[in-house]
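Good morning,

Attaching, inline, the backbone tokens for the sequence recovery test we're adding to the shared suite. The designed sequence is right after.
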């Protein structure tokens, strides 16, 4: 049995509603997995897992060969040992639309984030309609210092 969501959701936090940023509330998703013979059912892990890791993990659990060329990595070793050292980071990206679009055409940007166990770094760049290499803003949050992304 596996249960996961495709995105997080804000319910008024940051004065916003929905899933339209690279904040933790939007990028973090629930992931629950159980399989027959699981050695430590109900055990939580702090290991970083991405949704691209779900398919190779299910292949391994089902005894199906994992296809070559996948971006994800099976997290079955983490299921067997939740304390195991695991991935150093997870990656996400999301577009963001500036307000007053009629006054500022071509102002859409893409945010690229990297999340480690301690930090989230996001770089915002202009979208493909203009200059993709132009960095608009950067953000760095330290979760051990309780930054709460503010």
């Amino acid at each position: 049995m596996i249960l996961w969501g495709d995105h997080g959701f804000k319910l008024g936090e940051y004065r916003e509603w929905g899933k339209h940023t690279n904040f933790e509330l939007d990028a973090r998703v629930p992931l629950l997995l159980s399989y027959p013979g699981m050695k430590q059912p109900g055990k939580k892990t702090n290991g970083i897992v991405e949704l691209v890791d779900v398919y190779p993990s299910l292949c391994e659990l089902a005894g199906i060969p994992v296809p070559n060329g996948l971006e994800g990595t099976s997290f079955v070793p983490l299921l067997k040992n939740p304390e195991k050292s695991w991935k150093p980071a997870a990656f996400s990206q999301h577009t963001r639309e500036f307000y007053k679009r009629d006054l500022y055409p071509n102002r859409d940007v893409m945010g690229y984030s990297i999340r480690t166990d301690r930090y989230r770094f996001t770089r915002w760049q202009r979208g493909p309609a203009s200059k993709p290499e132009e960095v608009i803003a950067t953000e760095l949050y330290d979760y051990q210092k309780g930054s709460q992304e503010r």
